[in-house]
Amino acid sequence: MERTTTKQLELMTFRLNRATRNPVEAWTTGHGGKRVSNAGHYYVENANGGHRLVQIVDGSGTERNIGSGRGSKSDIWEQINVILNVMKGLGE
Description:
Elements: H1 6-19, E1 27-29, E2 35-37, E3 42-47, E4 50-56, E5 63-71, H2 73-89
Antiparallel strand pairs: 1-2, 3-4, 4-5
Helix pairs in contact: 1-2
């Protein structure tokens, strides 16, 4: 089995953001040049050798964990794939 790459995860989160009609960029420049996080944006966070799918929930960058927590890149790819397949099955 081939390893899941960071690029593959980026593509999957791009697809998830598009499918959920959420911003594809985590941050935008607001009034006066201030950077503001885009609520709803999904991305993969990497720390201590583990990865997790998170979603930004407000303009200050607060995030919530999506799924079962930290895992390998392959685990996170599979979580996103399941979400996309369920959405497809529901006609979203």
